[in-house]
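Lay summary. Proteins are chains of building blocks that fold into shapes, and those shapes determine what they do. In this project we predict the shape from the chain. Here is one chain we studied, written as its sequence of building blocks.
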Amino acid sequence: MTPFFATFFLLGLSSVAATTNFNQVYEWKELDYEWPSEASRSKALKDKTFEPDNISPHFIAVYGSRLFLSLESYGGIPVTLVSLPTSSASSAPPKLTPFPSWDMHGKIGDCDKIEEARGLEVDSVGRLWVLDSGSNTCKAKLWTIDLANNDQTKLIHEIDINHSMHDLVLDETPNGTFAYITRWREEHIVVFSLERNQSWFVHCTPGLRLISIALSPKDQEPRQLYLAKSKELYSFSVAALHNGTRRVNPKLIGNWTGPPYRMLMDNQGTVYAAFLWKNYASSWNSSQPLQEQRFREAAGKDSYWPFTIALDQNGTLWMTVFDTNREKPSQRLLKAAVGAKSYMFEAPPDGSSGAEGNVAGKPPKEEY
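And here is the predicted shape, written in a compact code that computers can read:
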């Protein structure tokens, strides 16, 4: 496969504009798992426990040379958490490896296994946090997988609810680590304290049926939690959450052009957002009034969930794109050096990105 490039600009990473190259890493006409044997794959196809057309990436995380995807749990999806390499010498795109193993994924109702992986996040010490939505018979769960230590897997907490889990962000503080979790179109978030091994609901202003979540960078005080309800974007300080508050009143920031199912903050205060039923993704410099700038336009117009996005530790933005505009719908993995890391990392004191790459400006439309 020969990588191709498209030049565009990203808003909000700096006051100086410069070009950024977006590289295609892989393209799949059909996603598939790395099966234990061809016989096991054939059996799964026959009994319809595996339907390749239903494989759809929903969340993405990156650590080192590995990339992790959680998959929508439609029928025919035996595994909802997979890994793949960030690069390959082969011309063929890699298959999806069940992560951390096939054995960690059981049938729905097996409460000791990963049932429905949703939001993903890698913390500063190399642990992959996996939000597991559970099932009708099993509680929602939080798993950690130590990527720097032979992928040791721990079920760290069960949340006393079922289903509708969506996304999470991590807040590492001097007094401990907190996870803030959204449930799909619910009027509360879930707060989890790692040190206390406790979780609790925090109710938002009545009527805020939340979708997505993002957290401002470590060195911004007071640190802000951003919540999206449909097109509306809200925020509030997380300080009260550390003290166990049970109710907050987020402030309206402005409106996106669509409902963002995924938001992502970098360590310089830029928010990236991907929207339901929109064939573009946008960014916003959170130090300014909400003015949305599109930085990617290429997904199919009739796709419910066209993109996933993540930042790694090296200033690279990763994105999967579901494109229905081609002769056969395809999934693609793209990457771009943007010069900013995840919100989990502090920005360098000199104001530079801490990684080579690019800064902001208004992007032209992309049509490839």
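What the prediction tells us: Residues 31-284 form a domain with the Neuraminidase fold (CATH 2.120.10.30).
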